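seq:
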Amino acid sequence: MRNRSRIGLAVALGASLLSATATQAQPVFGDTESIESLAANADLVFVGTLETFKDQADPDGHEAAIIVEDTLKVPRGECYTKLGARLPGPASLLTRWEGEPHRLLVFVKEEDPTAAVIDLADENLEVFTANLSVLRDRDLVIEAAREMVRETPVAVRRLQTFRLDAPRELLKGTRWETLDGLRVNVPVDDRLERRAIEALRSEDDFRRLEGIQALWYFKSDENVERLKPLLDDPASRFRPAEAGQYDGPGIRHYYIREEAYRTLTSWGVEVEPPVLREEVTPDKTLK
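struct:
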């Protein structure tokens, strides 16, 4: 086996898979990658342990050497026993990884100076899947990444992704519980299409909207027919002519109809334009 070093490839700590910006009195939302999107869009996926690193007090990270235990995805003909990487994050965490070897699942993109790392020894391990389930078992996390690598055609280097909003109930008891919402990046594949079709039948207005947006990637005669009934969807938002005056005149916006119409016309489907906006004087119950 060859021992090849790749200094300069940055690694993002598992905790940084979540990013959220807080603003006083405003909702706080986070973003994270599904294990499938990480695996599908990486050039290298491997399990290893941190051998050593240089504490450089560098905001861009620390150069480190990682001993490779198992490779899940490598370029054709390549084989590694050790890899060099630039690891961001506090030196204290890297020192802990170095002193008490932690198995790390690493995802590297050739063109991206920042890779992603999942600490498989984390007692609070939580990783989302494309089906919006949360994995907490390290072996299941590795197997999910391995399975995605197997499913992705060799000739496909990158997959399109789509952001799904995780249901609030899924965030309970997780590191994301305090957020107002979490978006999970998932591959655009058969799983997303099935989820989108199911969402079109939901009684939840937001899920129907998300379903239309996801279905945009899957043009077919069947999906055209699925979208047409949504041109009469009753969901709407009311914008009063004067701020706060919900019992006065304003505009009702049929946003789901608009999204369905936008998708159909982008597919080249000719349909009668639906009513998208109406001038109304709503009842106070809409307040």
